[in-house]
Automatic annotation (TrEMBL):
The keyword Chloroplast does not apply. This is ABC transporter ATP-binding protein. It comes from the Bacteria. The keyword ATP-binding applies. Keywords: ATP-binding, Nucleotide-binding, Transport. One of its GO terms (molecular function) is ATP binding. Residues 4-216 form the ABC transporter domain.
Length: 216
């Protein structure tokens, strides 16, 4: 079943066109990889799929509906950026924050399960300060905070940039397991082609804001 449908979607910043997607369908449960050089439009597309930006032109449908409450749509979607922001508090409170905002139940169990999923033992990490963590651990905590929300869609923007091999593998295992357990739809932008191909089952290449197949 189609979860996202894009038709003649265009995004502009000022007078500059940064993205033009004539047609794109993302199926529920799909793992779509986005590849392309810096400035190719990958991050813009992810922000639109996260409903953080609206298209300047065209139609972006979600779950069969072309319009609707954007805040309600955002409850189903979460975006992990390359440099995610964490609160200046413990790992547990960081992971629990979004769950509390959404009024979710069983928060402690949800936090522990999410930390386990990203390969961080709750007994060892939950009460640590975020400032005590390495770069790879910070990224995994940020991912755990998003997985704890049990989103229908997980969007990842360069999730393994500057990470060591072990952290990159942990992130791959976590998102793959979330997809297996919950049917989570994945859309991932990455320059690490080997990693990206290992986690995706389809690929979209963007070049200067357009799908590569649409280039003249």
């Amino acid at each position: 079943m189609a979860l996202y449908t894009l038709e003649d979607v265009v995004q502009r910043y000022g007078n500059r066109e940064v993205l033009s997607v004539p047609s794109l369908v993302i199926e529920e449960g799909e793992a779509l990889g986005l590849r392309g050089h810096n400035g190719s439009g990958k991050s813009t597309l992810l922000r639109m799929l996260a409903f953080l930006e609206q298209p300047a032109e065209g139609l972006l449908s979600f779950d069969g509906m072309a319009s609707g409450n954007v805040f309600e749509r955002r409850r189903h979607v979460t975006l992990l950026t390359q440099e995610p922001y964490l609160l200046t508090t413990t790992v547990r409170k960081n992971v629990a924050y979004g769950m509390k905002i959404r009024g979710m139940a069983d928060i402690d169990d949800g936090v522990d399960n999410a930390l386990d999923l990203v390969g961080l033992n709750p007994d060892s990490f939950a009460n640590r300060s975020a400032h005590e963590l390495s770069g790879g651990e910070l990224q995994r905590v940020a991912l755990a905070a998003r997985l704890a929300l049990r989103p229908r869609v997980l969007l990842l923007d360069e999730p393994t940039a500057s990470l060591d091999k072990n952290s990159a593998l942990r992130i791959k295992d976590a998102v793959t397991e979330a997809r297996r357990q919950q049917g989570t739809t994945l859309v991932i932008a990455s320059h690490d082609m080997t990693w990206l191909e290992s986690v995706s089952d389809s690929m979209l290449t963007l070049y200067e804001g357009r799908p590569a197949d649409d280039q003249d």
